[in-house]
Structure to design on (509 residues):
């Protein structure tokens, strides 16, 4: 029977012959060999799972019964002490005694000594070893950049420990640690954006019993608390949001005369900005999925994808475009960051849109026009404004139906410029892979549906937009995404026929 036991720092193997005797255990490194056991092999061999807290007792019982227990080191251990074993990751150590939870007595290369058994271990290494169960792409989706976060947090913890005053904790000065590591916290953004995809991938895997057993075995054998893997993967998302709350509480009980007061106050603002940036990136990532679906719904799209330059729909509505020849063209315009897209409605199917062109807003200058004759176009206009190209000096003239509509468009154009500048200052970028994935998903979702089916996003009603750190609304994760989209859809007006019918009905019992 093969017993595979995992503790925090080692993979333990025990080989027991059928007659009760023991055989030397043959172990391999991560590259594998002909004697390496797969997870399925271990399951067929009835592996022994340990309950939390019982690992040392179980190992000592195995040793007492005459079994050979070996440990495969996961990390290097360098020591100058003769009473300690030195080893490298992958080395095999025979465990002779494990009564102490922190130090075990073992043999390696004819030397017996103590070695540490308290290293940290997680799921990801075991997943990488089982290439038959997990692809590289699946591991990237599930775990994201969690190893980068772990490395960053180890450094951050050391900085905090250096600034902590053990003798007089109230004199500790930790504010500078947050300020020095402010840019490092930005790596949480990638992890938080990846987290919904990780949950989806895990949910698909958990439909199969072997994956449920695998992850539960990892948790039990590593003495981890009773939380499923998706709960552990949620922890970084929760922690990054708690820093501003913890710093606010610390600032509340820190006097202004304290030497760390100014740094704590600055750290509080810095971590609020970090959380704001993460929320903004998450919001934009959700936005690009809707924008991608919108583009797929447009008939006759030409040129680059809208996501190549844009990630947010700012305003939309109908305007009359006046050509150089003085002709009027009724168009539906969609204002994104960096781009203004023009579409034409189908004469019969008003929900079908045809692509008619776009303007680069980075090259345009907005000019408000008063009612009357415009000198450049030599036309009488009302509720009009124009966009003038800075490079070619070409003029694009637009007229709104009402003065209120014109005001909304002028405000939207100003908002577009401000948001572009904010994104630049905050380093707000969506990766090329995320853009391609959004377009690919949109194309798959639109495949097989009637051509021109309109799923365009509804332009939000104009509101005075607040600074970027004040205008984020986080939708509860418990609300299904279909319901979230539905909240933005306007209610249909009641039919005029039924309104008239009810008004004329003589009986209203």
């Amino acid at each position: 029977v093969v017993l595979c036991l995992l503790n925090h720092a080692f993979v333990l193997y025990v080989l027991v012959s059928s007659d009760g005797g023991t055989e030397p255990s043959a172990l391999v490194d991560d590259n594998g060999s002909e004697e390496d056991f797969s997870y399925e092999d271990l399951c067929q061999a009835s592996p022994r799972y340990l309950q939390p807290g019982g690992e040392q007792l179980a190992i000592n019982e195995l040793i007492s019964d005459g079994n050979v227990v070996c440990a495969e080191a996961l990390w290097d251990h360098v020591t100058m002490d003769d009473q300690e074993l030195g080893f490298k990751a992958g080395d095999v150590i025979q465990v002779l005694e494990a009564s102490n939870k922190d130090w075990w007595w073992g043999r390696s290369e004819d030397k017996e000594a103590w070695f540490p058994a308290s290293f940290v271990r997680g799921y990801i290494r075991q997943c990488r070893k089982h290439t038959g169960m997990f692809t590289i792409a699946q591991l990237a989706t599930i775990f994201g950049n969690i190893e980068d976060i772990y490395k960053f947090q180890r450094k951050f913890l050391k900085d905090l420990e250096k600034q902590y005053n053990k003798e007089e904790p109230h004199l500790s000065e930790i504010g500078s640690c947050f300020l020095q590591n402010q840019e490092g916290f930005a790596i949480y953004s990638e992890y938080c954006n990846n987290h919904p995809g990780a949950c989806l991938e895990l949910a698909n895997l958990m439909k199969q019993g072997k994956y449920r057993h695998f992850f539960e075995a990892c948790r039990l054998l590593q003495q981890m608390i009773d939380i499923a893997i998706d709960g552990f993967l949620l922890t970084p998302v929760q922690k990054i949001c708690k820093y501003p709350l913890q710093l606010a509480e610390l600032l509340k009980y820190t006097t202004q005369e304290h030497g760390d007061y100014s740094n704590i106050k600055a750290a509080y603002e810095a971590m609020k900005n970090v959380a704001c940036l993460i929320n903004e990136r998450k919001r934009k990532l959700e936005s690009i999925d809707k924008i991608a679906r919108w583009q797929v719904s447009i008939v006759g799209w030409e040129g680059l994808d809208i996501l190549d330059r844009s990630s947010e729909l700012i305003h939309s509505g109908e305007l009359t475009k006046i050509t150089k020849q003085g002709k009027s063209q009724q168009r539906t315009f969609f204002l994104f960051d960096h781009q203004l897209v023009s579409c034409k409605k189908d004469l019969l199917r008003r929900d079908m849109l045809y692509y008619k062109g776009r303007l680069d807003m980075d090259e345009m200058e907005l000019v408000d026009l008063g009612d009357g004759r415009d000198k450049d176009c030599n036309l009488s206009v009302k509720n009009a404004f124009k966009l003038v190209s800075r490079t070619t000096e070409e003029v694009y003239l637009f007229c709104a139906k009402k003065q209120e509509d014109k005001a909304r468009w002028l405000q939207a154009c100003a908002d577009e410029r401000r948001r572009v500048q904010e994104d630049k200052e905050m380093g707000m970028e969506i990766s090329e892979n995320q853009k391609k994935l959004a377009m690919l998903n949109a194309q798959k979702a639109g495949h097989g549906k009637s051509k021109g089916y309109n799923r365009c996003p509804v332009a939000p009603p104009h509101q005075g937009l607040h600074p970027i750190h004040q205008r984020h609304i986080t939708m509860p994760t418990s609300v299904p995404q279909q319901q979230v989209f539905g909240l933005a859809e306007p209610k249909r007006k009641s039919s005029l026929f039924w309104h008239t019918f009810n008004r004329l009905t003589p009986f209203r019992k």
About this structure: Confidence is low (pLDDT under 50) at residues 1-54, 448-509.
